Amino acid sequence: MFKSISDLTGLDILRASFTLVFVIISFLVGLRILLKYFTLKRKELITVGLSWIFLSSPWWPLAISFITILLFNYLLDPWFYVFLMNGFAAPGLFCWIYSVSELNFPQLKKKLIVIFGIICGVYEAILLVLFGLNYELIAAQGVNFDGFNYSRSIFVMIFLIFFIVTAFVSAILFCRASLQSENETVRWKGKFLLLGFITFVAAAAIDVFSFGNKILQAILRIALSIAAILYYLGFFLPSWLEKYLIK
Length: 247
What we know:
Rhopdopsin 7-helix transmembrane proteins
């Protein structure tokens, strides 16, 4: 699908640029956590890393499209755009719940994995069936379609609301242990993580209902980029900042 950079407005470029920043930081955080598995040999690091990567998946198609437009004057085909936009949310939620249960609720791990495994598995199966029938059953082109704005179906919206609520509650539980730690560095990491989670959940929730409002989406993508930076600091607090915060 042909589209050049000259076809984009300044607002489109701003929105796409900050979306790309958010996705890149999410990938960097996820990959760094994944790589820690090879030194620490803790399998939950794999799912934590995948969680961070998959949590950014609804914004992958815009970020990728921005790159392909810049390099090749090419916008992702609608069916592929819709698939990337919706296809990895359920695996991301399952990986996150596995990680939280492993780290915080080992006694409830089996029950949580079974419950969320069924929910995420059923949702993903239905999503793939609908996608195979007609991708517009998942997300249709919005009003004044410009290649980026798609309106999700009610089925997908319900799952995303469930996803956001679950992510918010579990994130607070995930950060609680860090915030209660006697180690000041760990407490600061917990604060950055919690603030990042709150910012991400708030921005993601509003973004779901933004319905193609470019100005609102541009602001929200800036907020998502800030959230990504905050949870990067929560996992990988630089030594210079640690020294500044802890005196």
